[in-house]
Fold:
Amino acid sequence: MDRFLTLDEAAEILGVDYKTVYRLVRSGALPAGKIGRVYRIKRADLDAYFESTKTQLAQGAPTPLKGLRCCVTGKRIVSELDIGGYCSETGGPICADAWAAGHRAASATSHKQTTRIKGEAT
Structure:
């Protein structure tokens, strides 16, 4: 027979707050039954949920950006977080610093420089 857990027990097993487990149950991400006013979770369902999150994390792992440079400054872009926006002329990435400074398009000089940098080995 399956063992049933309370939300508190499930939270303790996962190492999270009670409210986190409650939100998972309410959203349907974690299957649970309700008896009266009390939710119960099968231990097997809790284990299956945990295993599914491990798979999602592995599949969603970011891949490093290689060879990307800001089309305004030529600065290397190493993360999606470094991109502030994209050039209205070339579609190339603009680093967050240049974007915050109001640059929305690369000048002809900086675009030529970026093209040359892209040809270099990284």
About this structure: Helices lie at 7-14, 18-27, 43-59, 96-100, 108-119. Residues 108-118 have pLDDT under 50 and may be disordered. Strands lie at 4-5, 33-35, 38-42, 83-86, 93-95. The longest strand covers residues 38-42.
